[in-house]
Design brief:
single chain; 31 strands; 4 domains; Spore Coat Polysaccharide Biosynthesis Protein SpsA, Chain A; transferase activity; globular; transmembrane helix; alpha/beta; about 800 residues; 24 helices; Glycosyltransf_2; 10-stranded mixed sheet; 8-stranded parallel beta barrel; transmembrane; TIM Barrel; Nucleotide-diphossugar_trans
Length: about 800
C-alpha cells in the first residue's frame, strides 16, 4: 500500500473535504505520483468515493467517534456511553460503505491518549476496541478493520484486528528502523501499516523533510511493511473547523504546489522492491522433497512468482516413490536425484550443486511470499551474518485438524535473541551464505529427518557469526493433517533432539532440555506468564510496550510431577488421591487453554477444536519423550564433520597433545573440531564458559570431568588436560549412601518413617553402597581417561617428544 493522508479540511460540500473539483485534481495528482491508497479521518461522501474509484485509488476510512480526550470528566459511565455510541457509528458507517469498490478498509479509532488508557485501565480500553471490531464484522464480515495506535500506547492488545496500524514520527534513522522491526515482530503474521509518518517542513525546512521521508520510506520498504501513509498530502489542515497554524507536514503547500518531498515520495511509490539495490547477489533456492507430490506443485508455483532478479530453483528428489520427480519436471527448475540420503544429505546435495552466493531452503510442503527471497537477502547484508530466516505461518485454507496442530507446541518455530538476531531459524524457511555454510561442512548427515537446522545455527553462532531474522520473509507451511502424523512427527523430533543434545551438550540441561538464550516464538505455555508495561511517571513514557514473562511451564513439566506422584503413591496407597487429582487438573488446564486458543484464533466451534488443541498439548511431550528413549539406537558418526581440515593430534607427554600447522586465525575452528572428535566417540564435550581458564570441558557419565586448555607455540597448537572429580554427582552419591543406610527394607514402612521422622541407621547397608560408589568412581575414572586420550589421538601415527 502506497498512501498519503488527506484531511481534515474546512467544512464544505463534501463534509470535511475540499470542493469536488479540488478533490478530483488532488486524486489525479496522487495517482500520477504512484499513490494507490488514501487515508481519510472522517466518513466520506459517496461522491468522494466515486472520485477515488475513477483514479484507481482505495480509501482507508476513519470512523470518527467522540474521543475521550475531549470529554470533561472521564468517568467509567462516560466510557461505556462513548463505547456504545461508537459501536452504533461503526455499524451505520460500515453498512453504508463496505460494498463500495473504493473502500480498502476501516480504521476504528485513532491514538486514544495514554492518560485515558491509564485512567480507565488497559483491559477496559481493549474490550471497547474489540467491541468495535466485532460490531464492524457483524455489519460486513468481509471488510477489513484496524485501529491506529501510536508508541505511547503500544502495549494495547489489538490482535483482534485484521491488520496493525501505527502512527510514528521519529527523526533518527537508527531508532526508526529498530522500532519498525520491533513492531513487525510483535505483529506476527498480520500486515503492518504506518498510517502516519513524516516531518514538519516549517520547523526543519523542506530539504530536511525530503531527506527524512526518503530514509523513512526506504526503511519501511526494507522492513517489509504492508504499506505507508505519508502525513500529509497538503499543508491545508483543519481540526474542529479551525485552521492549524504553525505546522507544515504536507508534501504539497496549501495551493498544492509540490515541495521537494513530493518527488521523493513519488520516486519511492513508482518503484518496486528490487529497485532498492542496483545489484543483487545470485541466489539458489533448494527444495528437498520426499514423496511430496501432494504439495510440491504449490511450492514451485510460489517460487516461480518470486520477485527477485537473479535466482535459480533446485529440487532435490530424496529417493521419492511417488510422482515427485514428474511434478518437478513440469517447472523451470533443476531436478537432482541422488537416492535416499535423508534430509541433511539432500540439503548438502543442493548446496553442492548451487551456483548462488546465497543458498535458501524451503520445504516442499510450504509456499513462499513473492518477496520472501528478497527479504532474506536483505537480512544477510549484515557483515557478520551467516544465515537468515523468517516466520512460517499456517495457510488459512488448511482443514481444522491441521489448524489445531499448527497451534500445538512442538512445531518449527524461530528463537529470537532480539528483534533482528536469531538463535535458531526453522529449516522450512532459512538461507545461508554459501561460503559460511561450507565452512562448517554443510549439514551433518546424521540428521536424517530433523535437527539439522538447530545444529547448523549453533555451529555458526559458535564461530562468531550471527543468524539474522526478517519478519517479512514469510512462508506458509502446511502442518500435519492427522493426529497420528503429528505423533510420528514429534517422535522423530524427539530422536533428533537427542542427537542434537549429544553433539551440543553445553546447550542442554541435566533433564535433556535445550537451554535457549533467546525467546521461543510459538504456542504459549498453558500457564501464562505475567505482563509488564513501563509507563513512566504519570504514564508519560514515550515508547510504552508490553513485556511478557513467559512461564515456560508446559505439559512435560506437569507430566513429570504426575509421574513422581504416581511413584510416591505406589509406596503408600493412602497417597493415590494426589496423582488422581493432579491428572484431572492437568487435563482440565489443557482443555481450558485449548478452548482459549481456539476462540482467539477463530477456529469454530471452539469447544470441539479447542478440546483437540488441549489434547495435543498433552500428547506432544509424551511423543518427544518416546523419541528420546528410542534415540539410543542411533549411531554416532565415525569421525567429526570437520575431519581432514586439521592434522591429527599427537601425544606429547605429560597429558599434552600437539597439532602442527594451526595458526591464531584458525584456533576457534580447531577447538571446534577437537570438540567434534570427542563427541564422535560418545563423550560429552562442550566449549567452556568464559569465566574459567579452560577452553573445553568433557564430562563422564557420572563422576569425572576433564578440563582442556590450548596454547599456540609457533605453528603448532598444544592441548593440556586436567582431570577433576565433579562435585555435584559426588554429593548426590553421598546422599544416596545416607538414604540407604536410613531406609528400612520395607518401602511402605520407609514412607511412614519419613512421615514420622523415625529412622534406624543401618551401617552395613551404608558401607556396602559406599563401597560400590567408590569402585564406580575409580573404575569410571580409569575408563574415562583412556577414552578421552584415545579420542584425541585418533589417527596419530607416532608419538613425538614434548616441547
Amino acid at each position: 500500500m502506497r498512501g498519503v493522508t488527506y484531511g481534515t479540511f474546512a467544512p464544505g460540500e463534501l463534509g470535511l473535504f475540499p470542493a469536488p473539483e479540488r478533490v478530483e485534481r488532488d486524486f489525479a495528482t496522487m495517482a500520477a505520483a504512484g499513490v494507490n491508497a488514501v487515508r481519510v479521518y472522517t466518513v466520506p461522501d459517496t461522491r468522494l468515493l466515486n472520485l477515488a474509484e475513477q483514479q484507481g485509488l482505495k480509501l482507508l476510512v476513519g470512523v470518527w467517534w467522540e474521543d475521550p480526550l475531549y470529554t470533561a470528566r472521564p468517568t467509567r459511565e462516560l466510557l461505556r456511553e462513548t463505547a456504545a455510541a461508537a459501536r452504533e457509528t461503526v455499524r451505520r458507517t460500515v453498512r453504508e460503505l463496505a460494498g463500495h469498490p473504493a473502500v480498502l478498509g476501516f480504521i476504528l479509532g485513532n491514538e486514544i491518549p495514554g492518560s485515558i488508557v491509564r485512567w480507565h485501565g488497559r483491559k477496559r480500553v481493549e474490550e471497547a476496541l474489540r467491541g468495535l471490531y466485532e460490531t464492524g464484522k457483524e455489519a460486513a464480515p468481509e471488510a477489513l478493520f484496524s485501529y491506529a495506535n501510536y508508541p505511547t500506547t503500544g502495549y494495547l492488545d489489538t490482535s483482534c484486528f485484521d491488520f496493525e496500524c501505527y502512527n510514528i514520527f521519529l527523526e533518527e534513522e537508527g531508532a526508526f528502523r529498530r522500532y519498525l522491526t520491533q513492531l513487525q515482530v510483535s505483529a506476527g503474521g498480520r500486515p503492518l501499516v504506518l498510517t502516519e509518518l513524516g516531518l514538519d517542513s516549517r520547523l526543519h525546512g523542506e530539504e530536511r523533510q525530503a531527506e527524512v521521508l526518503d530514509w523513512q520510506l526506504r526503511a519501511a520498504r526494507e522492513a517489509g511493511l504492508a504499506g505507508t501513509c505519508v502525513f500529509s498530502w497538503t499543508d491545508d489542515w483543519w481540526v474542529k473547523e479551525r485552521r492549524v497554524e504553525g505546522w507544515s507536514f504536507g508534501i504539497t503547500r496549501e495551493d498544492r504546489e509540490p515541495k521537494p518531498a513530493f518527488e521523493v515520495v513519488a520516486n519511492h511509490y513508482r518503484s518496486g522492491l528490487p529497485d532498492l539495490r542496483e545489484e543483487w547477489p545470485r541466489a539458489s533456492v533448494v527444495v528437498c522433497a520426499y514423496n511430496a507430490e501432494a504439495t510440491l506443485g504449490e511450492c514451485l508455483e510460489s517460487l516461480k512468482r518470486l520477485e527477485y532478479p537473479d535466482y535459480e530453483v533446485l529440487v532435490v528428489d530424496d529417493g521419492s516413490e511417488d510422482g515427485t520427480a514428474g511434478i518437478a519436471r513440469e517447472y523451470p527448475v533443476r531436478l537432482i536425484q541422488g537416492g535416499r540420503l535423508g534430509l541433511s544429505g539432500a540439503r548438502n546435495l543442493g548446496l553442492q550443486n548451487a551456483t548462488g552466493e546465497i543458498v535458501a531452503y524451503i520445504d516442499a510442503d510450504a509456499r513462499a511470499d513473492p518477496d520472501w527471497l528478497t527479504y532474506l537477502v536483505l537480512a544477510l547484508e549484515a557483515p557478520d551474518a551467516a544465515g537468515a530466516g523468517g516466520p512460517n505461518l499456517p495457510p488459512p485454507e488448511d482443514p481444522p485438524v491441521a489448524q489445531c496442530i499448527a497451534r500445538a507446541p512442538g512445531g518449527p518455530v524461530h528463537v529470537l535473541i532480539d528483534n533482528e538476531r536469531a538463535e535458531h531459524v526453522p529449516g522450512c524457511n532459512m538461507a545461508y551464505r554459501r561460503d559460511r555454510l561450507s565452512e562448517i561442512g554443510g549439514f551433518d548427515p546424521i540428521y536424517r529427518a530433523a535437527g539439522d537446522d538447530v545444529d547448523v545455527c549453533w555451529k555458526l553462532l559458535d564461530l562468531g557469526y550471527t543468524i539474522r531474522f526478517h519478519p517479512a520473509a514469510l512462508v506458509w507451511h502446511h502442518s500435519r493433517g492427522r493426529v497420528r502424523d503429528f505423533w510420528r512427527q514429534q517422535v522423530g523430533y524427539g530422536r533428533a533432539e537427542a542427537l542434537v543434545a549429544r553433539n551440543h551438550p553445553d546447550k542442554f540441561n541435566g533433564l535433556g532440555r535445550a537451554i535457549w538464550r533467546g525467546v521461543i516464538y510459538g504456542p504459549a505455555s498453558i500457564v501464562p506468564g505475567r505482563t509488564f508495561v513501563y509507563t513512566g511517571r504519570f504514564g508519560e513514557a514515550p515508547f510504552q510496550r508490553l513485556y511478557q514473562e513467559r512461564s515456560g511451564i508446559g505439559g512435560s513439566h506437569f507430566l513429570y510431577v504426575l509421574l513422581a506422584l504416581v511413584l510416591l503413591a505406589a509406596l503408600d496407597p493412602h497417597l493415590w488421591p494426589l496423582p488422581v487429582f493432579a491428572a484431572g487438573a492437568l487435563l482440565a488446564g489443557c482443555l481450558v487453554h485449548g478452548w482459549r486458543v481456539a476462540g482467539r484464533e477463530g477456529i469454530e466451534p471452539a469447544w470441539k477444536w479447542g478440546s483437540l488443541i488441549g489434547w495435543l498439548y498433552l500428547l506432544q511431550p509424551v511423543a518427544r519423550e518416546v523419541g528420546r528413549l528410542r534415540s539410543w539406537k542411533l549411531a554416532y558418526p565415525p569421525v567429526s564433520a570437520l575431519a581432514g581440515r586439521f592434522p591429527p593430534l599427537r601425544p606429547a607427554g605429560g597429558g599434552m597433545f600437539v597439532a602442527e600447522g594451526v595458526g591464531e586465525a584458525e584456533r576457534t575452528a580447531f577447538l571446534e573440531e577437537v570438540c567434534n572428535r570427542l563427541r564422535a566417540q560418545r563423550l560429552k564435550a562442550r566449549s567452556a564458559p568464559a569465566w574459567g581458564m579452560e577452553d573445553l570441558l568433557c564430562d563422564s557419565f557420572l563422576f569425572w570431568r576433564v578440563l582442556i586448555v590450548s596454547c599456540l607455540y609457533g605453528e603448532a597448537a598444544y592441548l593440556r588436560s586436567k582431570w577433576r572429580p565433579r562435585t555435584k554427582p559426588l554429593l548426590a552419591a553421598a546422599l544416596v549412601v545416607l538414604l540407604v543406610g536410613a531406609w528400612p527394607p520395607n518401602p511402605v514402612a520407609g514412607v511412614a518413617a519419613l512421615r514420622d521422622g523415625t529412622f534406624i541407621w543401618s551401617p552395613v547397608a551404608a558401607a556396602a553402597v559406599a563401597a560400590v560408589v567408590a569402585a564406580a568412581f575409580l573404575v569410571e575414572g580409569w575408563v574415562f581417561r583412556r577414552r578421552v586420550r584415545r579420542a584425541l589421538s585418533l589417527g596419530a601415527d607416532e608419538k613425538p617428544g614434548g616441547p
